[in-house]
Structures are given as C-alpha cells and as structure tokens.
Amino acid sequence: MQNPKMPRVMWLINHTSARKFEVPMLKAIGINEIFQPKSFANDPTFRSASIDWSEDKNLTISKDELAVLNAADWYSGASKIAWEIANKYFQVVFFILHKPEVLKFASKYFKGVVIWRTYGLDESLTYTNVLNMLSKGEGESWVKTLGQRFYFGEAYPHLADQELGFLKNRRIYLPLGLGSTAIEDKWNGSCKTILFVCPDIGFNPYYANVYKKFTTDFDDLPFVIGGAQPIDINDPRVLGFVPQETHERNMQELRVMFYHSTEPNHIHYHPFEAIRAGMPLIFMAGGILDRFGGVDLPGRCRTVKEARKKIERILNDDWGLIEGIRRSQLRLLEPMKPANCEAAWQRGFEQILTTLEMAKANQLMAQKQNTKVAVIVPVAYRGGSLRGAKLLAQAIDFGARQDGENVEVIFAHLDSPDEYPDSEFQDFPLSIKRRPYQWKYLKQDEAHRAMAYAGLERDLFSQKYQVPSDGINDFLDCDFWIIVSDRLAFPLLPVRPYVMMVYDYLQRYEPFLSASINRQFIEAAHQAQKVWVTTEFTRQDALQYAGLPHAKVSKLPMLAPEFVSGDLSLSSETQYGESDYFVWTTNLAPHKNHKNAIQALQIYYEQLNGTFKCHVTGVLTQELLKRKEPHLKELARIVSFSPFLKRNMKLLGELPEMSYQDELSRSKFLWHAGRIDNGTFSVIEAAYLGVPSLSSDYPAMREIDRQFALNLAWMDADSPLNMATQLKKMETSASLIKSSLPDRAQLATESLARHANTYWAALKECL
Amino acid sequence: MKKYGIYLAYPPTIDLRGQGLGKHLSEFLKGAQERGDVEFVIACPSWMRQNLERLFEDALLAKGSFEIIAPTKKPSLLRLYEFVTSLKRTSQKKGKGARFWKLFSLMANKLYVSLIKQFAGTRSLFMMAVLAVPAIALLLVATFVGVIVKVLLQLWSVRKRVLQVVKKNTPFVNGVITRASRIGSQPKDSSIATLLYRLMETSEVSMMHRLIHAREDIRAWYSPAAFWPHFNQINAPRLMCVPDVVLASFPVGFSKLGGQRFLENFYQVEQAILTAQYLVTYSEDIKWRTLVERYHVDAQRISIVRHGANKLDSLVVVKGFPDNLAATNVLCRNLFKQALHKSVRLSTHSVFDNSEVKFLFYASQFRPNKNIISLLRAYKYLLTRRYIGHKLVLTGDPYVLPEIAKFIKDNGLESDVLCLKGLTNQELAGCYQAADLVVNPTLSEGGCPFTFTEALSVGTPVVMSRIPVTEEVITNDELQKQMLFDPYDWKDMAAKIEWALKNSDTLLAQQKSLYDQLSMRSWRHVVDEYVEILDRISSDR
Known about the structure:
Chain A is of the alpha/beta class and 767 residues long. Chain A is built from 28 helices and 25 strands. Chain B is 56% helix and 10% strand.
C-alpha cells in the first residue's frame, strides 16, 4: 500500500541487478508505485539490461497515460507530453546518463526531484567530465536550473568527492546493495581452474586491456573467462554465453575466482556472486572491497605476484588457505545487505521529501508571465528572404493567439533605415513589435562574464561571440530567440535558447563560401536548440552535410505570402493574348545560373527564332551586364556579340511591389532559371496572378510544385540547349498551362493561417 | 610431418600488424594449424622476431605454435638507433617530470595561499611579522625560480633561432642537421639511412641463410612477397609470390611517389622475379600480362592461388541481444563515429553529430592505380547534379597524392569527402557495415579486390570497376552488368552508383549468392593449395 506521504517514483534504469536491490528497497521505505522504462537502447553496452513489467499493476494512473509513459524512449529524453504525464503523477525521477537529453529534458519539463543515479566510474573519469563531454558543456547549466531539486545519488559514499561543486554539493548517499545476500554454498571446487570475469572484450577497449593483462599475467595457469561477449572472441578459454545450468555448475566446480579490479570507485557484481556461492575469491587491493572490510582478508593481494602465489596454492589443494578465505570473505557481503542499507535510504528520502515540499511551495508562488519571442534577421536580407522572416514572425504571432497563449513577438532587424524603411512593414499586424539592433561583439572573457552573470556559466571555446544589441537590454527581455538563417560570423552568445531557421545549404552545391566561414555557419546551427527547415531537400542537407542529429531538425511547411494584388486583377485573357514577353526574376547571386540562362536566351533567339522578349527583374539586375564577379563577367561579352540578345533583353532592376505585379501579370510566363536553392516564392506569386512558370528542375522546386499544385513546366538548368528548347515550347504551351493553374481559393489553402499552428507548436515544444 | 619455410625480410620500420600481409600471414598460419601434417617455420631477420610474436598474439595463435628462426641479436647499429628514438619519444611524452612539477606547483601554491590568508586575517602584529617572513621568502624563491625558468625558456627559443640562422648561412651544417633529423624521423626517406640499412640487411641475410641452410628438414621455402631477391639464394626448392608489379603499369603516376626508394624497391622486385625458381600469383591476368609478357617467365613455372574470402563480420556482428541486428547497427555506427575522429584535416567533423549519416565507402590507400580522381569526379556529379546527398568516405591521406587534396579543395568538397586514416580492423568493419554502398574504382590489382567479400560479409552491396582480375571471379554476365563499371569513364561509374543506391536491396540479394559461394573458400583452402605446390616443387628436388 502506497504511503500517502511518499512520492511515486520513476526509476528510469533497466539494469537487472540494480533493479533487484533498488525496487525492493524503495518499497521497504514505503514507496510502492514505481515506474520503469519498457525499452532501452539497442546498444551492446546495455548487456546487463532487461525490462520488467511487474510494477505496472501497482501504478494508480490511467491506462492511456501509462501507455504513453511505456512507449516513451526515456534514455533519449522522451517527449514533452510524456514529461507532462510524469509531472501529473510522479514526484521523483531516478536516471542514468546514457544520453544527455534525459537530464536536459528533465531539467526543462519535470517539476519534481531529479536524481542522477551514479554507480561509479573507472578512475580516469569523473561524472563532471562525462556530463561535460556528453552535453558539450551545457550540462552544468541544466543541473543549476534544477537547483535544489537535483541530487547526485551516489551508490558509495565517496563518489562525489572528486566532482566539481555543482555535483558534489548535491550529493545524497543511497547505497547500492544486492537483491539477495543469502549464502548458497554448494561449492566443491572440483575443477582446478581459475574463473575470471571479463565481458565485452570484443569492442570495449577498457575490457580488452583487462583481458590482455590477465591473459599475460596468468598465461601459464588454467583459466576460463566468463562474462557476456556480444562479439565472439576467438579464444577457447573465453566462455561467452553459457546456459544457466552450466553457469551454476561453473560456480560450484571452478576452484577460485580472481577479481582484478583496483578501481576505487566501481565494483562489479561477480565477486559477490562468488562469495555467496562459497567460491574462494582472490582480489586485488585498492578497490572498493577494501572499503567493505577487505583490507585484512587472506584473499586480498597487493601485487599480481602475490595473487599468483595464492592462486597457485589454491590450485594445489591448500585447503587451509581455501577455507580461511571462504570463511572470512563473508564479511564483504555486510555492506551489501538490504537491511544495512535501509537506514541510509530512509534518511535520503526524508531529505528528498523536504525538497519536494519546498519545490511545491516555490511553484505556487511563481507568477506566470507572458512569453516574449524575438525573431531576429541576422544580416541585411531583402526580397524573398526578408519576406520569409516576416512570414515566420506572423505565423508565430497568429499561431500563439489561436492557441490562446499570451506571446509577444518582437521582429528584430539590423538598424539600417535604408534597408528597412517603415514601408517595408506595413503588412505587419500591430501585435508584432519591430526592434532594430546592431551586433555587439564580446571577447571570450567578456562572454564568460556575461554567461556567469546570467547564471549560465559554462566553458566557452570561441575567442569571440556576438549578441544582438538593441540599445535596451540586448533582447534579454525575450525568453526565446529565433534566428532566421545561419549566417552568423561568430558564435551567438548562448545567453538565450534559440532556434535557427535554415533555408538552404547552397554552399554544398556552389562553393562560394570559404571553409572557415562555412564551418562557422554550421557550428551556429549545432548550437541551436532546434533547426527548422522548410523543404525535405534542406532537411537532408542539414542531416547529411551539416551533420545535425535527426532529433534537432524539424521540417515545417513552407509559408507563402498571400499576394494581394490590390486593384490589379488577374491577368485577363486579352492582356495575355497581347503580351509578348516573359519575366526572368533573378538577382546577382552565383547560384542563379546567369551564364547558362544568357546562353539559353542566345540559342532561343538566334537558333530557335524565339518570339518572346525577356524582361529581367530583381535586386540589382540593372547591373547584370556591368559586374566583374567571376560568375557575371562573361555575360556582357556574350550579349555584346548578339544583336538578338541586345534587342530582346530588357533589364528592369528591382521594381516596387505593385509595379512588379503589374509587369508579371501582363507577361506570358515567369522564367525561373536558378540552379539550386530552397525554392522561390516568385512562381507562387505568378500563379496568384494567373501566370504560368517555367522552372529549373531541382528538388526544392519540385517540393513547391507539389505543395502548391502549380503545374510548373521544367527545364534542365545545366543545359542551355534544353533551357532554350523549353523556352520555345512555352510559346505554345504557356496558355495551356495557364488554364490548369490553381485558382486563388486553392492557393489560399496553403496560407499562413493554415500553417501558423504548426509553427507555434514547434516553438512551444522548445519553450 | 612435412616442414616448409616462410621467408620474411621486412625492414625494422614495418609493423606487420598494420599491413595487409600481416593479416594474411596470420590467416595462413591459422589455416596451416588446422592441418596436422604440415608445419611452417618462419625465417626472418632478428628485428622481426618481436613483431611477429606480437602479430601472432593479436591473432590468438598460441605462443610457440610456430618456430621462428632468426639471428639472436639485433645489429648494434639498429639497437643504437632504437635507443635514440626511444629517448625522443620519452621526452615528447608528458612523463613523471611534468607530473611532479605540476604537483610541486600545486603544493607550493597551496602553502602560499594559506600563509597569505592567515596574514590577512590575523589581529596580531607579531603574527603578521612571523607570517610575513615565510610568505616573503616563498615569494622570493618563486620569483627567482620563475626568472630562471623564463631565462632558460628564452635561451631555448633563442637556440632555435640561432639554429635557424646557422642553417640559413651555412648550407653544409644545414645539410648535416637536415639529414640527421631525417634519419631519426623518416629513415626510409634518407639516402644515408637506406644505404646503411642495405649494408646491415646484407649481413643479416647472410646470417639468416646460414641458419636456413642448416635446416635440411625444411623441404621447400615460400616467400609471400617479391621484395627480396636474396630469397633466391636459398639452396632448396623455392616458391615466390608476386602479387603484382603495379609500378610497371603506372610508371608516370608512381614516378612522383616514394622517390629513389621506390625505384630501388622496383629493381629488387624485378631482380627477384628474374631469378625466381617457381612463382605463384593471385590471378590469370598477372600471370600472363605481367610475368609472362613483361618478364618472360616460363608459364609452367607459375601457379595461381586465389585469395581466401576476407570477412569482417566476426568483428562487428553482435549476438545475445533481443534484436541482434539493431545492436550490430548501433555498434557499427559508434565505430564509424569513432573513426570520424581520425579524419585528415577535416573542417567540420569536430561538430559532426549525425551518426546516422548516409555515405559511400571506399577503403584503400591512395595510389596512382586506385583511380581516386575518377571517383571524386563521379561523386561530385552525383552530389551537385543528381543530389544524392550521401557523403563519400575514403581511407587514404589525400596529401600523399596532392592532386587528390587539390581536387577536394578546388571543388569545395571538404565537408562531403571524408578521408579517414589509421582505422583499426574493427573500425573498418564498422564503416563497411554502416555504409549504404561500397565503391571500388581501382584500375589494377593483383587479384579480385577484397572489397567484394569485405562488404558483403557485413551486408553492404558493392559496385566495382570492370578489370580483368575482377572478371575472373565475378563471371556471371548479369551480375557484371549490374555491378561493374568502366573505370575510365566517370560517368559510367556515376550511373552505376546511382542505380545501386536506388536498387540496393536487389543488388545485395544478387551479390549475396555469389558471396556465399566465395566465402566457402577459407584460408584453409588457400593453405592446402600452397602446400600442394610446395609438395610438388619439393619432390622435384
């Protein structure tokens, strides 16, 4: 019967032997409702793990909610929903650190006490180091976030001695014992062979070394090696898996067990198994058995030479020594007896209960404030990129309001009135505040101080950091940042959690970035809590190229603006019939495929008798034939030698929005000749205006075509001949395609309003 | 019991555990152990004894299961060289001296802080005076020591500058210093070291041969490599293996690799072939095209023994878990992630966090016959035009052939073409298993590349170049069409890779049945065939 004062406990560990002790111990101190994970990693290092369903019947929680808990992958951190259920019913969580996410999400979502169960490591490691390594330096801040609710649950009283303060100061001693210390002495020692236990030889370098040392030191004596071997070992002395019957026989008949470990912080189970079975144990000094009272035992050895001598005596029937060892070694079981551990567990849980009371009170007192989110545009984006950032801000704002959440969205852009005039934001709802900023750069020591002041002290590795400075408080009034693109010259000061929206990894296909800058951009994405992308193509690049883990990357639907064309109506049939040009929307970026496009136009006019003129629009396109960049410098030469091109190409530059829509709506079709990017809104805008599009065929455009059902015509951007041929084909097919374009109502189904919830849900998961 | 000898004469710098031949030798001897009627005796220079014992230990061959005959003592010159290099290694390590100094500094600092604390906290002027004395003394000592250390460090750095000035202005001294340092760090690239080695080798070989000739119980001798013409001075039936003479087929490519040393080795190989009694090789192609056509060896004196299957599954296949396949995948992915840390000058791998990344794999050193540039061309096309998304993982050092490093850099492929080195066998197996597809673009090999059995043993399909030695083993027309490409046509290679990625299950299923056949050929079979040849030639005595 659950003691009403005692908490429900989640024991997020699957270690079979530990379970045999700790679950009964929890019950002994009055905790009867214990949840255990129903899955663990398919990792060869989990050889001692198993699943136990037996405690589920004692849990007084709903079946559906229990099913969610059972389905969760707790070692990978589980989901927010799972943690919400955990909060509802459980007050204490025990965990081991296989992956850092379990601690990260526990600190983020769990309201109760979190105990890092530590059973000891080999001497070369500390838990501080392990945490830092796994969490890339962030672990300390997670622990500090938990405050008093975090405990370092050491299985032996000295484990925390070598840890740093943030762990050491939160130590709580919960001794590890054995499920059963009953003596089952059936030993007869009839087989004059040493039993040495050494698992995982085939893939664990630590145990491979132990094996090598043992076989070298005892090469001339008869021995067998027990322990699980997930990888077969080509040594007949290594037993590998043996059936239970064989194992029991071995424990009865093998003459002596040698325990090699001198690790001061960790001990295995098998020496105790030998003691319980009555097998004489020869063990090395300096390990935990010394702390258990083994210092003056006859089975203890200070050197390998001494161990060999004693073992040889045992193998040569020195029954005096054998019986002396067997009798005296029983004392080593005392600290492992449940009865001898219970008092410490009682004391520990009294402390935990006090902490829980305090935590509960603190939560009641804490006021819920509205959430502020900053959407930050890191460079001077214009055109489609700026449009995307604005849509993102609007989606968050709209989605949050639809969900009844009190969220304030701040849109942050570089403080440059020329780049960002007020007119650019006329379509913004009043609820979104604009805030211009400049980048502030901090040296490493400055950054370190800033993090320390913010209570987020951690190791910082870069020499320089950047932080958006609004002249107020550097956006620290915001709870969360969304950085729209990964174009950060230096690492962002991690003073606020942030999500990064990455539209593409163009540099994978067009090497226009230096290796060092590219590395910086990739690293920025790694530091983000999450990376959002809008196409499957970019998602794959994020995983394959940038090397982001799957769990970090989320694909969200592409947001398209609703192209309200004001007084302009759809392109009428008359206007369309009279039109004699197509619009090539581009800019001066290298991936826009200018050379192939110009060559295609040349073929179209000179060889294929192309009849449509080409109107070129876009940022700085009026300088298309004047620039000296490597990818542009030849264009002027090609055009200068072609009277057809000179006659038929018109460079219009960047048009105001209304003028552009007017220009587009009266055209035959839109020509998108770029080679690779994350897709372009221009084809959607064209569809809104009833204008078909001929597009380069690459994955992102295919995704846009599918999402918006645009019926795009396709061309091979690598082949000027194919591009020209498709242009020629559009002379006859454009009107046909036009008739199959989606109407505005259909396009509206892909509106921001429809997808805002998805964006808000994605952000909410991070908050 | 029939006794046969194996002749080895590698230089001291070679560790067989890191060589393909080392693995083959272990497998060969394991196979030989299974036979009860044959014993192999290994003759080698004195400096190889320890290395062989370590090789056998790693391969779990019982100590003393093979006899090694070698001169007892190493040459004094070699012992001196080993002593000097071991000193250098010790001085480079942060040894006991550094640890002692750290501990000393820590203790001194602790004492000083304690004194200062008491000094600052005391209310008694007398105590202040008492404490001031040791504190000031400690401070003075520390300052003095610090100044001395600084001066020494300055002198040390000045020494380097002085040395630089001397080297710059006295070419003779510069030459001596450079040659001396090269002997220490890269002896194989030093002409002096090479000359000394050759003289030492001659003396050592002479001693080896005295031991060999005293052994009339050994019926015939086998040399697994063609590097040692002195093998042919043995007065007993002799069988020498010639895997290939790849320098002869790629003369321009190899002219820029290895310098005069390679040329010397080449002459040795030619001499060995021309004076050989009986030869064995791995393929019909090498027999006829190289040995018969180029070197005019009598075809009747040449035997062919194909390799045994090189399988890697025993290194990574996990057993005893509820889902063994999943556990194997996890292990292999961890091994791959471990291997990533051994990459050559990677720009982004320190932050590479996706252990599930998809990749193509080719395991080989970079040599002119390996056709790496074609593979890179095909890969670049597949990545940037066909958008396959996979990375390309290789196991060579791109700076060995600078054109490879240049291609990677010029085409912005540093983040997608990963060059790993120093992989353990288990890491190699992990990479094979984790890959989506294995590609072998080689232009020439001695026998059918091991790639096929290595990849298939861990369930990964493979596409390979269509070269004669491969066609000797992969004889099925349909399978050839599916998995072999023209190595001179990178577009064909790209098309084959792209098809294989889209149809990997089909390809794997079809390759599996050939693999099952090939994997029946164990090293025991190989040993049997060698013994048959050795029996034959020894009966000709």
